[in-house]
Amino acid sequence: MSGSITDVAGLKVGHFTDSRRPTGCTVVLCEQGAVCGVDVRGAAPGTRETDLLAPGNLVDRVHAVLLSGGSAFGLDAAGGVMRWLEERGHGFPVGPARVPIVPAAVLFDLWLGDHRIRPDAAAGYAACVAAGRDAPAQGSVGAGAGATVGKLFGIERAMKGGIGSASITVQGVTIAALVAVNAAGDVIDPATSAPIAGSRSDDGLSLRAISASLERGDWPAAISPGTNTSIGIVATDAVLDKTEASRLATMAHDGLARCIDPVHTMTDGDTLFALATGLSGRSVSMLALGPLAARVTARAVLAAAWSATGLPGLPSASDWAAGARLPIA
5-321 adopts what CATH topology? Predict the structure, then answer.
């Protein structure tokens, strides 16, 4: 796994990570505008400005996309991104003003620490200040700071999630992904079909493998609604219109399905955006670009899991691989 979303020309990425509890936000800036599409697959989404991305609607370019922790409260962070962009003259011209277009999606991380602390407009602004062309940090930072996985059998049996990125360049066109992984399900390595992070057994010493448990009739006693969600962005420097960008977001969800089990549940708000800067100047068949989007999204999910830093009671995939087993009290 290599590369990052900043390998796509025209994009910058910045994180804000709150020092008071595990939460934060991540912004992908495209100040000069990029064509954008979206596909919401989970049944419990928290989103902003997704309706305008429909191919038949007026605005065809966005100036940033925000991923945030804090559940629906975290949507406030988009206001800070708008302010940062407006100060620099970026936005959709409307009468005397330029209105920055900033779609956003949030994940639920209120389990950890004081739930009253969540990303706000100042956090979104700080993420923009931090944004740059270098490969962004991965793991337990930004929107992935408070991410957890494997919560279908309860947060006490979960493991740490995070944010990850990857890119592919083929025939002069780059496609990349950035995903914050906060799933109810397990993170699966497609090469082995085995979980690398997810729900732990009742004693905390092995990985449960959620789908196998469900098949055996071992079902969770209760599931908290809307407490999960994996969110991300797939981006390319190819030339796309809004219809193609929307289809790219749809096909990128196949990458989530390869690496998260179960995915797109009633308690997840899984949402993927697609950005096309067009700066390669090349048009590419969606029959080629779509499968690459799924592939790079899967790589970003794995990068998120492997880069995560464990917390007390919440080991990471790297902790687990190193033999760190935590009995559950």
Answer: L-amino peptidase D-ALA esterase/amidase (3.60.70)
The end-to-end CA distance of the chain, in Å, is: 36
pLDDT in tens, 251-300: 999 999 999 999 999 989 999 999 999 999 999 999 999 999 999 999 99
Is residue 329 scored above 70 in pLDDT?
A: no
More confident residue, 235 or 267: 235
Q: Where are the domains of the chain?
A: 5-321
How would residue 220 be classed by pLDDT, with cut points 50, 70 and 90?
Answer: confident
Encode burial over 282-302: b for 16+ CB neighbours within 10 A, e otherwise: eebebeebbebbbbbbbbbbb
